[in-house]
Write a structure and sequence with these properties.
The chain is mostly helical and 58 residues long. It contains 2 helices and no strands. Helix 1 runs antiparallel to helix 2 (33-57). The chain starts with a helix and ends with a helix.
């Protein structure tokens, strides 16, 4: 399960980066609706993955 979560987190990061590279509206501090959705997905999955790692170390 953790490997699947890591894979989804990395895929979300890639999707966000690819969008940011081509979107003329997105900046480092402001995002279009699609960019914000991708960023939110990435950060949510990243948080879940990092929290899982922390729990496994206990």
């Amino acid at each position: 399960m953790a490997d699947d979560l890591h894979h989804r987190y990395q895929d979300a990061h890639t999707a966000h980066q690819e969008h940011a590279r081509t979107c003329t509206t997105c900046t480092d501090t402001s995002r279009c609706l699609a960019g914000q959705r991708l960023y939110d997905s990435f950060t949510r999955l990243q948080d879940a993955y990092l929290n899982r790692l922390r729990q496994q170390r206990r």
